[in-house]
Amino acid sequence: MTQTLTLTWTTVCLLDRLEPDRGVAALVDGAQIALFRTADGLFAIDNRDPVSGAYVLSRGIVGSRGGVPTVASPLHKQVYDLRSGHCLDLPGTAVARHDVRCRNGLVEVRLRQEG
């Protein structure tokens, strides 16, 4: 499958509202995303855990593995690369990632959609 980008950026929150190494859930254009601020930057992935189907990744444990910024699912502890969305524990499993940026102190997200 290929991914397509939505054309618009959606403002989600002020950068100062994101605590380092903690996730937050946000509704962006009808999609639930998990947003993270780490020392490596800002990351946005789908909030839905592909293993359990629950919308919980924003409540996961933020960390790193081999220098890769990660989040571990709070349910079954699978670890996902925040840069790519790939699961580091289950080959072939991934969560969609989205574009995220900070402009003038505002965090903005642009969705990627499977096509």
Assign a percent range to the helix content: under 10%
Instruction: Report on the biggest sheet.
Output: 6 strands, antiparallel
What percentage of the residues does DSSP assign to strands (E)? Answer: over 45%
Name the poorly predicted regions.
Answer: none
CA-based shape: globular
Helices and strands, in order, run as EEEEEEEEEEE
Give the structural class: mainly beta
Computed over alpha carbons, the radius of gyration is: 13 Å
Please report the distance between the alpha carbons of the first and last residues.
6 Å
The average pLDDT score comes to 93
Strand order of the largest sheet: 2-10-9-5-4-3
Total strands: 11
Output the number of helix runs: 0
What does this 3D model show about the protein?
By secondary structure, this protein is mostly beta strands. The protein is 0% helix and 49% strand. The protein has no helices and 11 strands. It has strands at 3-5, 10-14, 23-28, 31-38, 41-46, 61-65, 68-72, 79-81, 97-103, 106-110, 112-114. The radius of gyration is 13 Å and the shape is globular. The mean pLDDT is 93.
